[in-house]
Amino acid sequence: MNIDHYLKIAEELNIKLKQVTDTVGLLDEGATVPFISRYRKEVTGSLDEVQVAAIRDRSLQLRELDKRREAILKSIKDQGKLDKSLEEKIIAAETMSVLEDLYLPYKPKRRTKATIAKEKGLEPLASLLFEQKSIDLDSEAAKYISNEKEVANVEEALQGARDIIAEWINENVELRKKMRDLFVEEGVFVSKVIPGKEEEAIKYKDYFDWTEPIKSAPSHRVLAMRRGEKELFLMLDSCPEELVAVSLIDNVILEKESNSAVDQVKLAIRDCYKRLLKPSMETEVRLLTKRKADEDAIKVFAENLRQLLLAAPLGEKSVLAIDPGFRTGCKTVCLGQQGQLLSYEAIYPNEPQKRIHEAGNTIKNMVEKFKVEAIAIGNGTASRETESFIKSLGLPKHVIITMVNESGASIYSASDVAREEFPDLDLTIRGAVSIGRRLMDPLAELVKIDAKSIGVGQYQHDVDQSALKNSLDDTVMSCVNGVGVEINTASKQLLTYVSGLGPVLAQNIVSYRTENGPFKTRAEIKKVPRLGDKAYEQAAGFLRIRNAKHPLDSSAVHPERYDLVEKMAKDLGAKVVDLMSSEELRSKIILKNYVSETVGLPTLHDIMEELSKPGRDPRETFEVFSFQDGVNEMSDLKIGMKLPGIVTNITKFGAFVDIGVHQDGLVHLSHMADKFINDPNEVVAVNQKVEVTVMEVDIPRKRIGLSMKSDPFAERGKIKQKDRKEETKVAEGDLAAKLAMLKGKFR
């Protein structure tokens, strides 16, 4: 990558050139984003994960640009058409669109109207017309009439010349740039329902007759309109006013006021716009807006996923988990403190069987036998009925009863991972196990499921799937490494996301652990087949070994810094374990005494922070949550009700909240706070407990409107009062206009 690219990245990210070059160097050596941001702060100047990932992604884009540039230069050179001026322009091009514009005249084409006209020998006539000088049009065109070239008359000759001119105009680099800017700045999305599909397309009712500037259209509306178009419910146009676009071309191309040649060029301009430029620009702008909408949607999905993965874990407790149901019963499992399956049963406390007494005895026996400390109930079908049943049993007060979001549990239960874990169990039993483990450790369980199936995204099936996967993989890796992984209990799936490992080494670790017993030291990890020095360097700091021989093996201190910590302890006449337990001892350490060429204050501060809380889980403490008793269905809702809820999904336009009625309600952005906010993430996070007020209930459309404002209905009165004032102003304005018209008429 050349120096200009490094400078460009530094400027875009507002960081120093050295930070970019050194970070790219680490990435090229195979270092991961979590490792670089955590353990190479001196090299990068303390760049965080977001900045390191941005450098990685932008450098890849610029390398792709260079790759395309080389291919274009070679293609034009092979054609014998590469002069110095064109080469300089291609080398100077900073975007893919500019590169492609420069290449367009030289790009191998299918047989076009222009190429056919050129084959008929009409290019000289096109050149003559394009000069826009005053000529005898008919006599000049008549020179090209030829039976051999299949030009029957003057009009055919002129038409062929116009086809050639239209292609020249379409390939004008300056014009294409201006037209592209026009489409972005002045373009408008126009969405209309396809006649006759009004009922079938009811979910797209908002877009039956919708107009919106392209540059300000939010991602969720762009994706919604495109989906409606793809499903053949909507017609979608995305262009500026045609007169404005054609006028722009006139200003660039036309050199004279009017003559017969200019008139021919004008015809070519209008043909070029409709047949070539408009479709090309519309495609580009739609790709551009789609890419931007994808980026926004993927960002929302990734942030939601992060919050979900980092949800507070219950921890190592014995759990009874229930996958609730009606006709098929409730699949019930008991899990040990490490998540191992101890027992499973099916109970039928709900309709139609209502074997309440039998189900109650089963639950009480399981709670007593397995010393159950918490009960996890999936939040799907029959969840509230099952919750009411469990709460009616009079179980010991220390037993926690809580609902768990089961989104994606069915995906897990039918997956290869679940079949490998529980080959002899029914899918529903596997689902119940997943629900229980999610309560114990959401991160460890959710990594087993394809992130797209977890249900916290916005139009996740409509966005670029490769970009989505890369972003979600980054997010999962960031969360896994941020929390740290206990190597002796972690699943293969969890280990896969540890920096430097991947699926093969993760499987090798599990196999080694099975054959040789638990790892006793981090150094022992090097004995795992195919796990070399580089992988060990990348992974070791994120792997934990509880009760290890070396006290730092349970912390986030990297093994490469053990000697440094041991020197700190020795200088104080103490042991490492003493530093980890004594704040007084740590306060005596003078950090500047340990600065070296490879270790600076950022790393030393990280070490001190880790010594003060070695291996502590950074996630929040678990809190029990319960829905409002007696509110189980949408029909139970009343306008003005205040209810507890839990945030399940966040979008650009608001947040969805589960209030326990089997249908999430929407808190629109305008109702998320008493003050104005731009982004829902300013006030809520996925899994956050909130109190909401019911504003609207639409049972046929399964829509619930909620508010988080302290007095949501007060605003309605203000709006009505404001509307009345506006109506008065409009009426007064209309009256003034009419009076002015009458005065003019009778003056």
TrEMBL record:
Keywords: Coiled coil. PANTHER family: 30S RIBOSOMAL PROTEIN S1, S1 RNA-BINDING DOMAIN-CONTAINING PROTEIN 1. It comes from the Bacteria. The keyword Coiled coil applies. It holds the Pfam family HHH_9. This is Tex family protein. Residues 151-185 form a coiled coil. InterPro entries: HHH_9 (IPR041692), NA-bd_OB-fold (IPR012340), Ribos_protein_bS1-like (IPR050437), RNaseH-like_sf (IPR012337), RuvA_2-like (IPR010994), S1_domain (IPR003029), S1_Tex (IPR044146), Tex-like_central_region (IPR055179). Residues 640-709 form the S1 motif domain.
